[in-house]
Amino acid sequence: MLRFILRRLMLAFVTLAFLLVIVTLIPNIAPGDPARKIAGGTASPERLMQVTESLGLRDSVLTQLQKLATSVFTLDFGDSFSVAAGEPVMSLVWSALGNSAKLVILALIVIVPLSVLGGLVTAYKKDTWIDRTIINVGIAFSAIPDFVAGVFLLAFLAVPVDFFKVQAAAPPGSSPLVQIQHLLLPVIAVLMVYFGYIARVTRAGTITALDSDYARTAFMRGLSIPQVFRKHIARNALQPTVAVLGTQLGYLFGGMVALERVFGYQGVGNLILRAVDRADYPVLRAGVLAVAVIYMLATLSADLLIAYMNPRARQSLGDN
Amino acid sequence: MTVTESHTPEPADLAAAPALAVDGLEMSYVVRGTPRKILRGVTFEVRQGEAYGLVGESGCGKSTTAYAALRYLPSNGVIDAGRVLSGGEELTAMSAIELRKFRAERASMVFQDPVQAVNPVLKIGTQVAEAFQVMGQSKAEARVSALAALERVHIAAPESVMERYPHQLSGGMLQRVVIAMGLACDPTLLVLDEPTTGLDATVEAEVLDLVRELRSELNSAILLIAHNLGVIRTMCDRVGVMYAGRIVEEGTVAEVFDNPSHPYTKGLLNSIPRRGLRKTDSELFSIPGAAPPIGASLPNCTFVDRCPIATDLCRTDVPPIVQRSDGHWTRCHHVDRLDEVPEPEKVTVKYDIGTEQVIGVEGVSKTFRQRGRDVPALVGVNLGFAEGETLGLVGESGSGKSTLAKTMLGVHAPDEGGAITLRGRTMADKATSRIEESVRAISMVFQNPDSALNRAWTVRRILHRSVVKLTGVKGAAADRRVEEIAEGMQLSTRHLDMRPRQLSGGLKQRVAIARAFAGDPEVVVCDEPTSALDVSVQAAILNLLARLQNEERSSYLFISHDIGVVRYLADRIAVMYLGRIMEIGATQTMFEGVNHPYTEALLSAVPSVDGVAENRIPLTGSIPSPANPPPGCVFHTRCHRAIAGLCEVTEPELVELSPGHSIKCHLTVEQLNEPIKADVVATLS
Ligand SMILES: Nc1ncnc2c1ncn2[C@@H]1O[C@H](COP(=O)(O)OP(=O)(O)OP(=O)(O)O)[C@@H](O)[C@H]1O
Ligand code: SF4
Ligand code: SF4
Ligand SMILES: [Mg+2]
Questions:
Q1: Chain A contact for B116, CB < 8 A?
Q2: What is the CA B344 to chain-centroid distance, rounded?
């Protein structure tokens, strides 16, 4: 087990190193002159030179890489250029991460129980109208891009109903409840996207488990349906769900660009997008790396959770 | 058979209502909205203390009946008519709560594959204890009971088993665990669906002993489903023969198996090699056609399309139930014409075996390295195959049979010093470096044709590729050769254009055999080629293998755990244990004379459909790990004849007792002939 964690961490480091190289390269190979983008079209050559200098783009790529690596370890990426000129990059990243975390955690609290329940019910009621209705609604919703869902929610809920807020960010100093109230619409949008997906993964796992001889044995032993689900089905059926959640968590952190835009929310996705837009490479680099780290941590925890659920996975992990 | 006599129900039992009564049960499965008939009026009774067997081809509805006995329906199952009663109470009318109570306290079911029947993520102890908790015991009480239950099924080291997970136990141990769970409630009704099908012959024998022992202890009623008719014969009092969702014949096992009175039963029994039948005596009978698919609308006698003595009457009128003797009945219009059911054909061709050795396995050892340790899987194996000869290879799982097959095929290289030879010349170790002639010389047929055949390809393409690859023939000539081979396998042109998934198991195995013969091989290695098939399909495949061999003059290495089948097909038999050949000799000799103690035990474990009560020599404990073989004679830890001070010290040589018959044992023929001490023998009665 310990060896597995160490191996996974090693692997994470390798991936991170690889990513570090890519992130270093971005401004060097991106089309157009980044300095011009930052300084503006009318900037003087001296000003351009200065910006290039402070971006570190005059150094060799190797030196840039070295500097970036140092930044990672000291958690100091210098100051932002254009997104919020002069502010430390890390404070921007931290605050965006905090915002994203609020949204993601709230979304998970809503999505996981609902869609897992949906998966269990549809599996148990396989091939009935209940199953078909839930699954088809799920599929229909997940076919809608998240920002489209967001726009619809804005138009049909936020505008007529006062309770729902157009802005996902609550005014500074709001109580947690008010913050949650503001986050409701984006959470519903995420729910619409993910419900069908997670419910179907859960449904498939549950059907396999329900069809198994051990579930049959449990029923034959006289256990009630809830007992069979709790004691025998859950830990077997939910392993794929956990794996999927692990990989989707990273996406929720970094990939909700459009949705964050629609609701004017300052999450990581939005931050990275603005950084790209304004060629703020320090912010871009730090943001991308942060998402990568979160992604790795999420998949690692999912794997560990699966290992906890399944002794065989535990053993094969120990073997490697 | 004494079984029936010793279990004659006591008068008290006769008075009581039967533990299970299935009455006119009709069931369907709803598939894509359409109900498809699967049971068409099943009626039988299992009395208290009685063991009732159900036999019949795959898909005839045996498992469906078994589930129905506990009123467990798959989610798409519907009961159309009929009732199921236990102890006079109607299960088909019980509420969900009553039903749960019934299952918890009075009935249990054991499934075919013990590996699937236990929850992979829970410790054994937790699962066994749960069976007691549903009956209202506290957690602590249940643990104590669970331990006692595991002791009752004679599992080694029960305390440590409690703490283990399913994947850490062998199949035999798991089946004991499953039975322990099933017995938790001292069930009045125990349903066993193919409880030993996935197990080795010796483990099967142990599990059956256990069921037998528990049965006399418990006086519960047993419904046993098994496709191995020998198992039914040795375990059951009465048997029902099922065909297409209906019982067509019923009676005591002795009556039904010795005096079969339905053309279907006759066909089934004629398709297994009985009473030491050999390929040189007669072919096996294979019931023509295939069982009808579920939901098919069937004529009045469901068997009419495959029945050799059918008349128009069989289509127009429902066959009557004809009493043959007390309690033995059959459902057939033409019981008087049963003699006309064809017997298997006597073999007229002569099987002649060449004298020259074609392929030789010479001093082959194979040592795997696993986590820095040497695991000897084969140790000094010497074998030779003459032209047209079948060498049967038997031994428990883990004895190295498949490793030998793979080494011959060049999947593994043998250790230094050993070699596979083709007509005296040494072949390269690995198939990849073998010359074309050597690659062609050895081919293989696997147990599971599904995984062996490319699913995306048509049969024609599969065969074509093998022909081109192995013989170098191309174009139209290759096409012709494909059709020739297919014809030889009794595959029609229609089959050639189908894909494997459209074919039945038997047809798929034919394709696999056809492919194996594409390159005119010298030796075909058959690894359990029929163990996944119904007896009637198995018969057709065995006939085919025998015929092909005679025509093509190739040799077989035939691996099987079914001793009856090996005896039928093999000219010589080799017995393997822990990677060593323990005995080798002509089939005749092996079944007549003295045997190695291991062979002796293996042979005694075979449940015979002919009902000869035999004394079984139990093989105690499991096969030792090849990574850590016992010193001296590797078999001494389980040998019933071991001589203390000798066997655990010195490894015996392979000694020739008579020409061609060798055993690896210290004992002399006289010592081997001595009767075995009574205390090691488990008597079957
Ligand atoms: N839930 C189900 N839905 C649809 N068809 C089913 C279902 N369960 C079984 N069947 C089909 O019903 C037929 C009878 O099944 P059953 O399992 O009772 O046969 P069986 O006699 O036990 O066969 P085997 O010897 O292969 O175990 C088979 O054709 C099978 O494919
Ligand atoms: S009733 Fe007719 S078709 Fe059916 S088994 Fe008897 S003879 Fe054959
Ligand atoms: S050598 Fe000894 S232990 Fe081995 S088989 Fe013979 S009698 Fe048994
Ligand atoms: Mg079955």
A1: yes
A2: 22
Contacts of B10-16 with CB under 8 Å at 24 or more apart are B10/B49, B13/B47, B13/B48, B13/B49, B14/B47, B16/B48, B16/B87
**What is the least distance, in Å, from the CA of B390 to any CA of chain A?**
39
Under a CB-based contact definition with an 8 Å cutoff, are residues B391 and B573 in contact? yes
Q: Determine, yes or no, domain membership for B129.
A: no
B360 neighbors B421 (Cβ within 8 angstroms) = yes
pLDDT in tens, A117-173: 999 999 888 888 888 899 889 888 888 888 888 888 888 877 777 777 777 777 777
Residue B300, domain CATH: 3.40.50.300
Q: Is A124 left (phi over 0), alpha (psi -120 to 50) or beta?
A: alpha
B582 in ligand 3 pocket by Cβ < 6 Å? no
Which residues of A fall within a CB distance of 8 Å from B130? 218, 221, 223, 231
Q: Where are the domains of chain A?
A: 2-74, 90-319
Asked if the structure places residue B627 within a domain, the reply is no
ipTM exceeding the 0.90 mark = no
Domain A90-319: which topology? MetI-like fold (1.10.3720)
For residue A264, what is the enclosing H or E element? none
* Number of domains within chain B: 1
Give dist(CA B613, CA B607) in Å, integer.
Answer: 9
pLDDT band with cut points at 50, 70 and 90 for residue B46: very high
CA atoms of B419 and B383, how far apart (whole Å): 11
In tens, the pLDDT along B379-399 reads 889 988 888 889 999 888 778
Higher pLDDT, A316 or B295: B295
B113: contact with A, CB 8 A cutoff: yes
Q: Is residue B540 part of a domain?
A: no
Nearest-CA distance A18 → chain B (Å): 32
B214 versus B576: the higher-pLDDT residue is B576
Q: What is the pLDDT of residue B550?
A: 82
Domain that holds residue B299: 1-7+18-106+185-349
- Does B284 reside within a domain? yes
What average pLDDT does this structure show over B294-301? 80
* Nearest in space to B560 (alpha carbons), one of B232, B228, B281: B228
Q: Quick one: three-class SS letters along B250-295?
A: EEEHHHHHHCCCCHHHHHHHHCCCCCCCCCCCECCCCCCCCCCCCC
**Ligand 3 within 6 A of CB of B642:** yes
Q: Which of A38-42, B336-340, B651-655 has the lowest mean pLDDT?
A: A38-42
B72 touches chain A (CB under 8 A): yes
Helices (H), B339-391: none
DSSP B48: T
